[in-house]
Amino acid sequence: MIVIMADESAAQKALAEAKANHIEHVYASENRVGFAGLKDIDDVPFINEQQVVDVITDHPGAMQVSRAFHPTDTVIQTPHSTIGGQNFSLIAGPDAIESAEHVLAMGQAAKAAGATILRGGSYKPRTSPYSFQGLGEQGLIWHRAAADALGMDMMTEIMSPADVDLVGKYTDIFQIGTRNMQNFSLLKAVGRQNKPVLLKRGMSATVDEFLSAAEYIASEGNRQIILMERGIRSFDQKYLRNTMDVSVIPVLQKLTHLPVLADPSHAAGVSEHVTPIGLAAVAAGAQGLMLEIHDQPAKAWVDGKQALTPDQMTNLFAKANAIHEL
Predict the structure, then answer these.
(1) What pLDDT, in 10s, does the model give residues 216-269?
(2) How far is 207 from 319, CA to CA, in rounded Å?
(3) How far apart are CA 124 and CA 73, in angstroms?
(4) How many domains does the chain have?
(5) Both 157 and 117 in a single domain?
(6) 3-state SS string for 161-194
(7) Which of these, 157, 108, 186, 171, lies nearest to 263 by C-alpha position?
(8) Same domain for 206 and 316
(9) Nearest 5 degrees, angle CA 17-CA 21-CA 25?
């Protein structure tokens, strides 16, 4: 149940009274108070009815991340980026951190193309247990140094609740990969942090499952959440790694106030298709793009087949900016 109050002051007073009455899972946003476990206004008799404007009972289960609870767009501010709303965010970097020199060089190219966030993986969830799994903390050190030298934000994937403190020492933005979208212990752990979280859609996740995963993060107090469509598993994997669900972008933007970005690299899986898929996502309203880049894709340690060269990235970002402006 979401109770719309006369103003923000009334909402905060109702929130305090609810907590004083030991009601669990109650949250406030602007002039609204959300009761995740209640469905009837009679269950909260302490609220001043004269201050109640409306009561919404038919709302998504993922209440805190819904527009019914928070109608205005969430805009997330990091040291070097403004994500969400009318802003357009560009993220790029190597799939895996390979060396200090390489991540710095890729960061220089990304920044020159307009990116403000340097991505890269030091902990890699791989399909095969025998594939390269990342350089661990050494990769984080090199990644942080490159981001600092360039004046960019650092974003890296986290795989386990046990790594939150370690990864949190270095990164500006936690990334939850598609395989961990429903790792609820991990979602709760990053939900207790005061840093933005980029949450990728699971490769077979429905919209409700995606938003519910975001709600797990918000339920622990962290509403700095960025959603990312990265392609879903379909029946034809011969030519594309995944199928970019362009249609879900406007759907999500109607349902949630959170920023919605797109990752065409993982959707395409083949570098020659990354640009058109990325541009389609921007045309559908994506508020940013994330790309994998490598100066020598054939020699990349991970996913070189889908990596763009710096020149290809620059071309895509220029076109993406133009479409966003339109």
Answers:
(1) 999 999 999 999 999 999 888 778 789 999 999 999 999 999 999 999 999 999
(2) 28
(3) 32
(4) 2
(5) yes
(6) HHHHHHHHCCCCEEEECHHHCCCHHHHHHHHCCC
(7) 157
(8) yes
(9) 85
* 303 and 174 in a common domain: yes
Cα separation, 274 vs 281, in Å, equals 11
Lowest mean pLDDT among 112-116, 130-134, 209-213: 130-134
* Domain co-membership, 190 together with 306: yes
Pair 181, 95 in one domain: yes
pLDDT at 16: 95
* Backbone phi, psi, residue 132, to 5°: -60, 130
Q: Are 155 and 119 spatial neighbours (Cβ–Cβ below 8 Å)? A: yes
Mean pLDDT in residue range 110-129? 89
- Residue 250 covered by a domain: yes
Question: Which residues form the domain of 255?
Answer: 76-325
Angle formed at CA 162 by CA 153 and CA 36, multiple of 5 degrees: 80
pTM (2 d.p.): 0.95
Whether 167 and 24 map to the same domain: the answer is no
* Tokens matching residue 217: 């993060």
Tokens coding 107: 């960061």
Q: Answer yes or no: are the C-beta atoms of 257 and 68 closer than 8 Å.
A: no
Section 75-80 average pLDDT: 98
pLDDT digits (tens, 9 = 90+) for 296-313: 999 999 889 999 999 999
Burial class (CB in 10 A: 0-12, 13-18, 19+), 228: buried
Which residue has 């895509």 as its token pair? 316
Q: Quick one: 157 and 14 in the same domain?
A: no
Q: Is the pLDDT at 126 greater than 70, yes or no? A: no
Query: Furthest-apart CA pair in the chain: how many Å?
Result: 67
309 in helix, strand or coil?
Answer: coil
Give the 3-state secondary structure of residue 153.
Answer: strand
Instruction: Look at residue 184 and tell me if it is in a domain.
Output: yes
pLDDT averaged over every residue in the chain: 95
